[in-house]
Amino acid sequence: MDKVSLPERADWKKTAEANGFQFHTMHGEPYWDESSAYALSLEQIENDIEYPAGELHEMCREAVARVCVSEQLMDLLAIPEMHRDMIAGSFHDDDPELYGRFDLIYDGKGPAKMIEYNADTPTSLYESASFQWQWLEDQIQAGILPEASDQFNSIHEALVRRFGEILPKGENIHFAALGDADNNIEDYSTTECLGWAAREAGCIPHYTDLVRIGLTPEGQFADSEDKVIGTLFKLYPWEDLLRDDFAAHIAGSQCRFIEPAWKAIMSNKGLLPVLWEMFEGHPNLLASFFKSDFDALTPAVQRSMAELSRGYVTKPVFSREGSSITITENGNATEIAQDQSYDENPMIVQAYREMPVFDGFRPVLGAWIVGRSCVGLGIREDRSRITQDLSRFKPHFIRD
Amino acid sequence: MGGLAGFAAFSLVACSDEKTAAQVFSSNAECQSQAREMNSWWSPEDCTAAFAKAEASHREGAPRYDDKAVCEDQHGGEMCEADAAAVPAGGGSGIFMPLLAGYLIANMMGKSGAPASSPLYPAATGGYKTADGKTAVPVLKGATSVGSSAFRPTPPTIGKAPMTKASIAERGGFGASRTTSGGARAGG
Fold this sequence. Notes:
The structure holds two protein chains of two kinds. By secondary structure, chain A is α+β, with helices and mostly antiparallel strands. Among the domains of chain A are: 154-258, Glutamate-cysteine ligase, N-terminal domain (Rossmann fold, 3-Layer(aba) Sandwich), CATH 3.40.50; 287-351, Dna Ligase, domain 1 (2-Layer Sandwich). Helices cover 32% and strands 24% of the residues of chain A. A five-stranded antiparallel β-sheet of chain A has the order 6-5-18-19-20. In chain A, a hairpin with a 2-residue loop joins strand 2 (25-26) and strand 3 (29-30). Chain A starts with a strand and ends with a strand. In chain B, the strands form two sheets. In chain B, strands 7-6-5-4-1-8 form a six-stranded antiparallel β-sheet. Chain B is built from three helices and nine strands; from the N terminus they run E-H-H-H-E-E-E-E-E-E-E-E. The longest helix of chain B has 18 residues, at 44-61. Helices cover 18% and strands 20% of the residues of chain B. Chain B has helices spanning 28-35, 44-61, 68-75; strands at 19-25, 80-82, 96-98, 102-106, 116-122, 128-129, 136-137, 142-147, 170-171. Strand 9 of chain A pairs antiparallel with strand 9 (170-171) of chain B.
């Protein structure tokens, strides 16, 4: 794995804007950055990303099954008691999952290490699935990249196929996020990218602002135009849905949720210690513990002491975009996320793995899961050791 | 592998939608009589083929509602009929669809054979709309310019659960983001 400098396409900003990808630059900093790209071998993609991420997803499913039957684990994951039956039921009924993104640390050599699994509300979908692919095609056509170059990216096709498996043709599906294209373009663009795939699969996509959703006297949800919602894709995390005023109506709403309710467990960072307990020493996992076990110095914590004493990360069971994360090395907090908006939630501790540095930036590899397979890669990098929402998206290609 | 998916999943009248010259008719006969005029690009045979195609997509993909009042809300008074395909043996139907009011035809560039066509439905707010409601024309005659997406096949609605309109008891019960203390985004 290398980072190589490449000439930028002369007109990429115009192309981006024509396609609604207006957030290529945010807060005056580039977000989409094609002045360089990551080059990986096919072997690295297949053996170190694709197969391990597929295996990790299956391990996560096993861990969800375990949490479903344990009140104690449900407590540790802060799952509200009144919703536990619904969540376990959705897993037992095999309500289908749509997509997710593993965030991995990888330097091209040793095994990729899973930092976390954004299994509920992953974004950066458009730039991963679509704009990145356009970049590859353009650069091959311009002779910048060799004809034989490829990219690990069948995200869009896999989504079309997956929608076709989940929903009958002609079915209405509502997509909801906070706000709309004018005030929350990043989330909106991910839902729009999914809406496009749903349409290609023969479904009828609609958009509604999440806060405009209403409740009918019969207890069903309805969109901003008062149409009943039969299937709802929500780019809004389950842990928040379960604490909203309408939460009590979810179970009786006859609404199919995508992602399904059991993603409240799979996307919870409390799953990391459960995984470690079930698969201790797995090459793609970092030692992880509930804060209470860590503080109690349980035998499992002691077994990982060599690793933990080099450094560990403390993070809440709920959080996104690196919020409320602290890195502790040799007993000192060496990095504290500026955004502490999740710090009132239960915490976990994860062994810290130093990230590789390429040209001053630290990449995090996003391995996209659709259904139960790993189908693509999107890389974001940051100067800081905590990848936050000011990170840059970098295209990648496969050279062989 | 994914091409540029484009950004028009929900709003098909986006600026990237290529404009096409189209003709609007209220009936096959109208189309036929104008086809005989000078300089028309369509033939009487085109009219018959296009009208047959529009009727077929009307049967397959017209908007369907579970209630006449809901249908009339969208399409205007006396503009809806029971779905013949859904009438059970005992008579009566719980499914309603708007009347086929007219149709759009276009000579799509680079396409051979019959012109593209699309059914048009009355809109309660005035004018006429395609099945997905995303393309509108003010009157059922004359030349117009529409996005080429107006001719995209709509997913079938026949035999599917119809759209229902709900009376709303309460709104705004989602979106409080209670596990975080700030921020307008939910994804990550």
